[in-house]
Amino acid sequence: MTGPTVGTLRVDGATLHYEVRGHGPLLLLIPGGTGGAAAVAGLAEALATEWTVATYDPRGMSRSTLDDPGAEQTVAEHADDAFRLLELLSPGEPARVFGASSGAVAALHLLTTRPERVALLVAHEPPVVEVLPDAAEHRALLARVRDTLHAQGLMPAMAVFAAGLRKAGDTAGPPAGVTLPPQAAARAERTMAGLPFFVGRIVPAFMSYVPDLHRLEALSGRLLLAAGEDSRGELPYRPAALLAERFGTGLLHFPGGHTGLTTRPAEFAELLRRTLRPHGSGRPAPAGPAGASR
Length: 294
Hints:
Blueprint: E1 5-11, E2 14-21, E3 26-30, H1 41-47, E4 52-56, E5 65-66, H2 75-89, E6 95-100, H3 102-113, E7 118-124, H4 135-152, H5 154-165, H6 182-185, H7 188-207, H8 213-218, E8 223-228, H9 237-247, E9 251-254, H10 260-263, H11 265-276, E10 292-293
Parallel strand pairs: 3-4, 3-6, 6-7, 7-8, 8-9
Antiparallel strand pairs: 1-2, 2-4, 2-5, 9-10
Helix pairs in contact: 1-11, 2-3, 4-5, 4-7
Organism: Kitasatospora indigofera
Pfam families: Abhydrolase_1
Keywords: Hydrolase
């Protein structure tokens, strides 16, 4: 397959780097974390046989530069960036959208503010912890991360953050048996470069975001909450599970954990492919054993 078509888009306060692959209806992939478009490149390539797949580096990440490098970040701005890309690449036509982690938070805001542009949203583990009954504990976690970052630096702050995401009883370290594909391992340098921005500005803004639950419930016919099969009990899993139960939509389980799209890319892509295909009334096709469940 030939490489992606690469472009830039001027938005308010930033210049976005975006990539487009394939042909067909538009599918927008909104990455989370620090990997940007490179983190979902394998997923984009696998899906480009059926869709025009667009992805991008979120503002401030990798090749998407901020006019003011010190600017604070907001979910609303990031969601508007996604909207501007939809307007550029699929004017007047609703698109399918997949968002992961912080990208899923931006995607939820996109759905509530620009529902006419979203045909279907698959939101994988959006860490909207403010919807949880123990939200106060997670506000305290964010405060500890912030204080540790200022007092001790990046890696101690990352250790505090990672500990707060794990389920009770888990110990530090990667899951047993997980080996990153070579292309994922090659992204390590870029990922590390983006960590200060991510921990200092994305994490506090996105994990304190309060979604409009009444609006999301009204739009739940075009929303699928998703989580990793191996993420059960971890903090990013819990908001997706809670919202899926509240909206009565079922929770779609993908292979792997929070980063399953990079650790299990082929299986992840195949389930997402089946999910995105039109089926019946517009809801996704049944996903089989790994599919929707409570």
